[in-house]
Amino acid sequence: MSLDDRDIYKLWTRDELEYNRETLSYDYYTYFDLLINYFGYTAKALFLYADQLKTYEAMEDMGYLIKELYDYAKMMNTISDKFDKYPRHFLTTHKIACRNYNRMKKEFSEDLFKKRIMKKYECTFGDYQFIYPENIQDIKDESVQQNNCVSSYIDKVIDGKCHIMFLRKKSAPDESLVTIEIRNDRIVQAKRRFNNDVTDEEQKVIDNWNKKFSNKKEEVTA
Questions:
Q1: How far is CA 100 from each of CA 68, 71, 75, 77, 97, rounded to the nearest angstrom?
Q2: What pLDDT digit, counting tens, does each position of 103-124 carry?
Q3: Which of 60, 68, 102, 188 could form a disulfide bond with 21, CB atoms 3.0-4.6 angstroms apart?
Q4: Which branch of life, at top level (predicted)?
Q5: Whole-Å CA distances, 9 to 12, 47, 58, 73, 156
């Protein structure tokens, strides 16, 4: 085996931090664990494959390799979970996969978005209603009307990292009012036009929504 102890350490420990708006802290994870837990790789096969790539494709930086392999697996799994986990010519396969993924992304992103829609989040409180966008264009329209950056969250919705919803008046459901970000069944961000803070009345409605879905989670775990 051409891998040395330093290579193995890099493969095993290359990590990433992601800010969690709900806990106001950073979530830590390693690419090695993600490949095993979410994409069906095995530790032994990963080490053997890394050794093969170092020997035959001159990939010396194991930290870079494991991240590239994770990016490849995540991208290919979006298309089909029957992808080749250990392609013989990884560098070439990865380039071809990126090209094909980018070509197909526009076609299947709308379908992926629709699979993420959570109609259970829609409800009303007094004069207000929570609306889940029907398609990607709805979010783009919201971004334009609100003069905010919510359109940049589309990929996060597709990847299952969050949900975007609209809080609007029942009497004017087509008029933008408040843009909402949801993570783990909780509203973690709510902004009016130009990213201004919500009113006290709107905040009470948001608190009621959080209470409603917090109670539902407690009922499930009870």
A1: 16, 14, 10, 13, 5
A2: 776 666 788 899 899 999 999 9
A3: 188
A4: Bacteria
A5: 5, 11, 18, 21, 30
Q: How far apart, in whole angstroms, are the C-alpha atoms of residue 50 and residue 125?
A: 55
**How many Å apart are CA 161 and CA 112, to the nearest integer?**
13
Residue 73 in contact with residue 39, Cβ under 8 Å? Answer: yes
Phi, psi of 165 (to 5 degrees): -135, 170
- The answer to whether 30 touches 13, Cβ cutoff 8 Å, is yes
Q: 102 falls in which pLDDT band (50, 70, 90)?
A: confident
Cβ count within 10 A of residue 187: 21
Residue indicated by tokens 């350490």: 9
Q: What is the largest CA-CA distance in the chain?
A: 69
β partners of residue 179: 166, 191
Q: How many CB atoms lie within 10 A of CB 31?
A: 24
CA 195 to chain centre: 22
**pLDDT tens profile 157-186:** 988 899 999 999 999 999 999 999 999 999
Q: How far apart are CA 174 and CA 69, in angstroms?
A: 43
Q: How far apart are CA 115 and CA 46, in angstroms?
A: 31
| Strand, coil or helix: 168 | strand
Q: pTM of the full predicted structure?
A: 0.58
Query: For residues 162 and 126, what is the distance between their CA atoms, to the nearest angstrom?
Result: 26
